[in-house]
Amino acid sequence: MSMRKKNSGNSKSKLLIPAKTQSRRVAVLVLGDIGQSPRMQYHALSLAQAGHFVDFIGYDGAKPMNQVLSSPNIKLRHIRALPRPTSAPRAAFYLYALFKVLYQIVMLLWLFLFVIPTPNYIIVQNPPAIPTLAVARASAFMTGAKLIIDWHNYGYTILAMSLGDGHPIVSVAKCAMAADLRDNWKIGGKIVVLHDKAPKHFRRLTASEMHKESLLTYRKADGTVDMRKKRPMLIVSTTSWTADEDFSVLLKALVLYDTVATQINNSIEDNSNREALPSLAVLITGKGPLRAYYEEEISRLQLCTVRIATAWLSAEDYPLVLGSADLGVSLHTSSSGLDLPMKVVDMLGCGTPVCAYEFPCIGELVTADNGMVFCSAAELAQQIQDLAGQLDSRGSAYQRLLQGAAAFRQIDWNTNYKCVLELLR
């Protein structure tokens, strides 16, 4: 996370609208669906809870968290999304992209200059970098606000996934961002690291809490609740259904698991010494452009021991499901190799062990104490098989991963956010 302070310069040579110092008003900008931007919602909530007034700018869509909607210090400012043509030649994409950028520039400048009260600070999420960074920077210049960038990936690496690394648009974005980092941020920007952590309400559910919402538990004669011994293993994978997550890896792994589990379970009648592998209940949650494609692929699978469902969970149900799951799976690979998947933070924040696709910095989150990393469908299938056979075994590797995941959540988002609040003093 970076903060750039505007150089004072000669006050007579610049037309600036100074931000009021008596009050602290923060504009939180995300050029995306507010309801699907949990990290920016956490920003807004933490700022509001600290006594600041927040103008939360972004697209309308999924319902944000109830805490965001009910906070008297948060005002949602929706940007109208520009409809994208569904059937147009590829060449039309460039015209649409150019017009979309111009449209976003006009909309954002109008909001900053004529709609919202003059902010003291502007917090912007990157990516998307185009045109968000340029507009936020120009708005900060014209209003006298200080600009804070929540920088968790490079915008040009996202563009490269759809246009190709050598595309002129990618090259322009790459050069512009490199120049900005070299010439501006290195000199005038203050950089702090805000590690992703789940908020306090993300936690492991007790068996009694799960009993109210699922069929994974049973009530004993003495009234206490425990997990069913031959219950299915609940696996949750969260995705934005985009190109940086290859969900065919998970589907292939589930097919491999189903083949092995079916063979083992069918042979138990002839070999009573073998332990049966549990069935898998796999829930994939999220919204995104590739969801329909993968749902079609899932519908073609013929599995005996695996059931797969897709859903979009509300902000309130999401942590409940993660807190009930036996295992989380992350297919995120990072377009830059530098950003860490927040879904893994959420899973570990709920005390759920994680199997994550390996990429350069994933080891900062997933360690031998709280999960495993894989490089192929076969490796993931083997990891699921190993853990599935240990769900209720005391002292097992799975139980140790549960303990490691529980240790991860000892520090939450609110504790980490103190470093950001220091920037606003």
UniProtKB/TrEMBL annotation:
One Pfam entry name: Glyco_trans_1_4
What does the record say about its membrane topology? Answer: Single-pass membrane protein
Coiled-coil features, chain-numbered ranges: none
Where found?
Endoplasmic reticulum membrane
Q: What is its main location?
A: endoplasmic reticulum
Q: Mind telling me which residue stretches traverse the membrane in this protein?
A: 93-116
Q: Which PANTHER family match?
A: BETA1,4 MANNOSYLTRANSFERASE, CHITOBIOSYLDIPHOSPHODOLICHOL BETA-MANNOSYLTRANSFERASE
Q: Function, please?
A: Participates in the formation of the lipid-linked precursor oligosaccharide for N-glycosylation. Involved in assembling the dolichol-pyrophosphate-GlcNAc(2)-Man(5) intermediate on the cytoplasmic surface of the ER.
Please report the name of this protein according to its UniProt entry. Chitobiosyldiphosphodolichol beta-mannosyltransferase
Native species = Coemansia spiralis
The upper taxonomy is:
Eukaryota, Fungi, Fungi incertae sedis, Zoopagomycota, Kickxellomycotina
Gene name, per UniProt, is ALG1
